[in-house]
């Protein structure tokens, strides 16, 4: 039995892969196929309820590429799975030696745009597929969802509160980070706060209130321990009576030269109750006390509350954001787009499966802007074409070494805020948003059509 969470150690991440990645790599090795290949990681389509993605997860992906190693324990396990000794000897000295281009974290992106481009010996490029997809899919999904919640809150604070229902310990930490990138003010996740220096927030649970004979005794006990940052949960029994007791405690704190932070509502008709509670607080000159709301919130519910003029100052958003409940997955994929010939020339490749076509060749994504700096359209072009706008893909690794210094989390968060500010408002509505224009360059269109004809003709010739 392994120690609890031992599998999360960095040295074990080389086996964080699908079995078929290793079987393909073993077959490549056995057949002496070490050709250089290029793979694109991209998201195939937008969910019906989304109009953009907010890219996240690159820092973790680069850390993995730098550090992937196979230990003796890993090799012993793979030996039991029937892998040959010569392949295991290759894995013993495995290092990622490829070139990687990527979009910076915090960038707004759209379907079919390469987000990460890996060029490496095909075994290396193939082996890293699962980890890259797992990292980018989850974190981009959450960042995209959280950005919608933050946009709906219209400047009011949003705190990520979903740790208890997020799918696993590792996911919980990534959700906190991705939500913070998207504009959340902080998280309830203390470990994420330690790792990433994200502000942490929390009030109290109903169990704390219920553990005292009287509700006001619980309020006083909490305020005694945290006089400078008390937010009292007032709806355990009766929200209005709870608000009135919170006023008593607030006045007791004022007598000591301290101000009550606020009150929290976690159930019921939040719009109407918040209005009543605001009146109670204001009648006692507690205008400074904030109203914090939680309880099954998402971007749609927050928009409804603000449309109803609910005097809520901050939102704690948990399950529906932390699991991206309305769309709990992305169609992120990793596909081969070129291989190197025996003469050292690169040959473009594409997939023609129904509804799953891919774009051939090494590509770059360009962003064109309007006069005010807002996004106008994107163009996907071949990498060797003259630039037509602002290039989104940057070289981040060369010969397996970083050529890019990952920004601080606060800088990534700033990048996300700047991107969202430049995304025209029609693409940030919660429903029925238009499709942002993403075009293919003329040269890429021509290559795509030519390859389709050649592949189709070749398949016809070989089937007769």
Structure, explained:
The chain has 464 residues and is α/β, with parallel strands linked by helices. The protein has two domains: 6-142 and 327-463, nicotinate phosphoribosyltransferase (Alpha-Beta Barrel); 203-294, TIM Barrel (Alpha-Beta Barrel), CATH 3.20.20.70. The protein has helices at residues 19-30, 58-67, 72-80, 85-92, 122-127, 129-153, 169-181, 190-196, 206-210, 215-225, 239-255, 270-283, 299-307, 319-322, 409-422, 442-463, and strands at 36-43, 53-54, 99-102, 108-109, 116-121, 157-160, 186-187, 231-233, 262-265, 290-294, 314-317, 332-340, 346-348, 363-369, 375-382, 390-391, 394-398, 401-402, 438-440. The strands form four sheets. It has a seven-stranded antiparallel beta sheet with strand order 13-12-1-5-3-17-18. A six-stranded parallel beta sheet has the order 7-6-11-10-9-8. Strand 9, helix 12 and strand 10 form a beta-alpha-beta unit. Helix 2 runs antiparallel to helix 6 and helix 10 packs parallel to helix 11. The radius of gyration is 26 Å and the shape is elongated. Mean pLDDT is 94; it is low at 1-5.
């Amino acid at each position: 039995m392994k120690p609890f969470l031992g599998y999360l150690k960095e040295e074990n991440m080389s086996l964080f892969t699908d079995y078929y990645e290793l079987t393909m790599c073993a077959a490549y090795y056995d057949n002496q196929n070490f050709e250089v290949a290029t793979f694109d990681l991209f998201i195939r389509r937008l969910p019906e309820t989304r109009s953009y993605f907010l890219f996240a997860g690159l820092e973790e992906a680069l850390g993995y590429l730098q550090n992937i190693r196979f230990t003796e324990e890993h090799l012993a396990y793979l030996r039991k799975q029937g892998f040959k000794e010569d392949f295991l000897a290759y894995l013993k000295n495995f290092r990622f030696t490829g070139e990687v281009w990527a979009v910076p974290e915090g960038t707004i992106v759209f379907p079919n745009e390469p987000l990460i481009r890996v060029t490496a010996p095909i075994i290396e490029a193939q082996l890293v597929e699962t980890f890259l997809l797992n990292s980018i899919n989850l974190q981009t999904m959450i960042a995209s969802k959280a950005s919608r919640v933050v946009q709906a809150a219209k400047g009011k604070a949003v705190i990520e509160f979903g740790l208890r229902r997020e799918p696993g310990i590792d996911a919980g930490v990534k959700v906190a980070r991705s939500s913070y990138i998207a504009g959340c003010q902080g998280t309830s996740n203390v470990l994420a706060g330690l790792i990433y220096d994200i502000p942490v927030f929390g009030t109290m649970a109903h169990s704390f209130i219920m553990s005292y004979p009287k509700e006001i005794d619980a309020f006083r006990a909490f305020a005694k321990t945290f006089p400078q940052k008390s937010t009292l949960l007032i709806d355990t029994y009766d929200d209005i009576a709870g608000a009135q007791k919170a006023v008593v405690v607030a006045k007791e704190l004022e007598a000591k030269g301290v101000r009550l932070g606020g009150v929290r509502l976690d159930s019921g008709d939040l719009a109407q109750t918040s209005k009543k509670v605001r009146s109670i607080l204001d009648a006692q000159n507690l205008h400074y006390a904030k109203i914090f709301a939680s309880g099954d919130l998402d971007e749609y519910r927050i928009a409804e509350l603000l449309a109803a003029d609910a005097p809520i100052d901050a939102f704690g958003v948990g399950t529906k954001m932390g699991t991206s409940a309305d769309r709990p997955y992305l169609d992120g994929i990793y596909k081969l787009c070129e291989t190197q010939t025996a003469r050292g020339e690169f040959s473009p490749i594409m997939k023609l499966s129904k509804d799953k076509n891919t774009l051939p060749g090494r590509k770059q994504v360009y962003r064109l802007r309007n006069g005010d700096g807002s996004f106008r359209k994107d163009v996907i072009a071949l990498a060797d074409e003259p630039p037509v706008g602002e290039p989104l893909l940057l070289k981040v690794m060369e010969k397996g070494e970083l050529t890019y210094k990952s920004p601080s989390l606060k800088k990534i968060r700033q990048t996300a805020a700047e991107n969202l500010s430049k995304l025209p408002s029609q693409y940030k509505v919660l429903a029925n948003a238009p499709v942002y224009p993403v075009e293919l360059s003329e040269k890429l269109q021509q290559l795509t059509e030519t390859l389709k004809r050649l592949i189709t003709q070749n398949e016809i010739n070989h089937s007769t």
